[in-house]
Write a structure and sequence with these properties.
single chain; alpha+beta; 4-stranded antiparallel sheet; 2 helices; 4 strands; Lrp/AsnC ligand binding domain-containing protein; Dimeric_a/b-barrel; Tscrpt_reg_AsnC/Lrp_C
Amino acid sequence: MVHAFIMVKTAAGKSEGLLSEIRSLEPVGNAHIVAGNYDIITEVDTGEVYDVLDVASSKIQGLDGVSDTKTYIAMD
């Protein structure tokens, strides 16, 4: 099992709308609006590292209003 955090930067005023879209994606477990350099933090659990990359690059980055993502793979 691969556990990862995907940080999402959004366009101004888009965070709340994107939050519900991101939460509906498979295999997203949790997603929250946060304060800081990124606007949304997303937790995913997948079977393979490739699946995490697919969620970040294809599913989340493909949403209208997403301007950047950064992915962190949990090592424990």
